Design the sequence.
């Protein structure tokens, strides 16, 4: 419903109910350091989803005992030994703690009142995230079948996320806080696309199941290993019975057979995921990349506020081009050179009222009340 009262707004309502609701809502999010009412629900949705996803998968730190039985059919055949075993272990034991710790980086009260903790936590996250991506590169060749589409999608996602994280780190070392915020949001938006990827996979697999007619070439040894991993003894292994080509010499091409998509057998389920995984990765990455850019473009006031904070800190540190000492558009593109605004009209500036930081507009209203 639109707000037709020109003297009232959703942030500063005039009605008794509106004041009660806004007051109640602020009592919830203000202790966490949020100054904008819309940021708290976004925090609950997106950071909450990441926290829940990570906590549900902490059990996978036991790679052979927990992750292997739940892995995509065919993967453990390749990951059980050799450098790929090192790669999947390295990835899991580093990305899980990193994903857990990063959730606390988005709590404003920690950034404002526990800055040292925020910085130390940030360094730990980066130190964990880099080797986790090294693990990804080590296993990419055989991830979910290892098709060129899947390899390109995973490689691109890992590389772009690392680049964004590197740019966030560079900008904070240059005290360019606005760009640090932007690139850190991008980095973890890209990384969190693995959550949306699962949802897209579920939908895509249902579509393929109803469409039919799809098949994938899979190795006979890989199929046999899938059943063996389920605890079926070799003499009772149905791999050759279900895939007759594997039972006879000179009837396969490089030891592979054609497996139609199906949910009835491990190899059929694996074939379905191999067909959709690359597509789902690209689509999830695109959605997350688009959403984070929309958010950044809808919050220019916060960006400008942090730009002025960066200007002040860079000026105190003696940097050249204060306000633009990091990777800013005005230094690398053709936009006008940024200059600090004396008035800062419409921008969010911290003021203190009763010992807490509030927005400039709210501070003015309180002062007039």
Sequence:
């Amino acid at each position: 419903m639109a707000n037709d009262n020109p003297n009232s707004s959703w942030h500063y309502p005039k009605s008794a109910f509106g004041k009660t609701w806004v007051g109640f809502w602020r009592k919830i999010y203000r202790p966490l350091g949020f100054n904008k009412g819309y940021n708290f629900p976004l925090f609950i949705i997106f950071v909450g989803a990441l926290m829940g996803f990570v906590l549900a998968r902490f059990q996978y730190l036991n790679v052979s005992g927990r992750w292997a039985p739940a892995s995509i059919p065919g993967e453990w055949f390749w990951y059980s030994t050799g450098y790929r075993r090192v790669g999947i272990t390295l990835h899991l034991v580093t990305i899980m703690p990193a994903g857990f710790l990063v959730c606390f980086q988005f709590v404003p009260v920690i950034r404002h009142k526990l800055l040292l903790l925020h910085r130390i936590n940030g360094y730990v996250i980066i130190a964990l995230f880099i080797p986790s991506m090294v693990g990804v590169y080590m296993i990419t060749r055989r991830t979910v079948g290892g098709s060129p589409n899947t390899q390109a999608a995973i490689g691109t996602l890992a590389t772009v996320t690392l680049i964004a994280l590197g740019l966030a780190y560079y900008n904070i070392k240059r005290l360019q806080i606005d760009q640090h915020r932007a690139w850190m949001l991008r980095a973890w938006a890209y990384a969190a696309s693995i959550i949306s990827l699962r949802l897209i996979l579920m939908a895509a697999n249902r579509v393929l199941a109803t469409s039919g007619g799809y098949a994938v070439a899979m190795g006979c040894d890989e199929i046999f290993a899938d059943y063996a991993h389920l605890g079926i003894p070799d003499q009772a292994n149905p791999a050759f019975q279900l895939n007759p080509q594997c039972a006879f010499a000179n009837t396969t091409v490089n030891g592979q057979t054609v497996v139609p998509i199906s949910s009835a057998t491990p190899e059929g389920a694996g074939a379905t995921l191999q067909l959709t995984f690359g597509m789902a990765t690209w689509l999830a990455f695109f959605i997350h990349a688009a959403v984070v850019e929309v958010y950044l473009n809808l919050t220019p006031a916060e960006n400008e506020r942090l730009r002025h904070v960066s200007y002040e800190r860079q000026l105190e540190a003696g940097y050249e081009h204060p306000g633009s000492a990091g990777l800013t558009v005005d230094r690398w593109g053709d936009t006008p050179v940024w200059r600090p605004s004396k008035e800062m009209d419409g921008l969010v500036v911290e003021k203190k009222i009763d010992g807490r930081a509030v927005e400039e507009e709210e501070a003015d209203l309180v002062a007039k009340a």
Notes: DSSP finds 16 helices and four strands in the chain.
